[in-house]
Amino acid sequence: MPQEARPRAADRLDDDDYPAFTMGRAAEMIGATPAFLRSLGEARLIEPLRSEGGHRRYSRYQLRIAARARELVDGGTPIEAACRIIILEDQLEEALKLNEALRRETGDDGGPAGA
């Protein structure tokens, strides 16, 4: 019987959503403490995957979000406000992508209406 093709672990390292990093390594990579990462989880900004042993694992995408939160907090923004800012930035980016896709679909170049 042919064996099902299983992705190699090394192939997953290029996946932004693959939870490859332990809490300690993730904190080190963004120059923060594990407590800071836990606080982002408590604020529901990022929700790390749990290993079979219950340990938090972070993806590259989550680390980019955490690094942005750290920038804001280091600049004096309260963590709750930093989380809200990041959520709004993410929503804006998605809206801009959707808007661009709709423009391409309809052939609208984004110029003034009726010109």
Automatic annotation (TrEMBL):
Protein's name according to its UniProt entry: MerR family transcriptional regulator
Highest taxon listed in the record's lineage: Bacteria
Record domain HTH merR-type: where: 20-88
Database matches in InterPro entries: DNA-bd_dom_put_sf, MerR-type_HTH_dom
Signal peptide: none
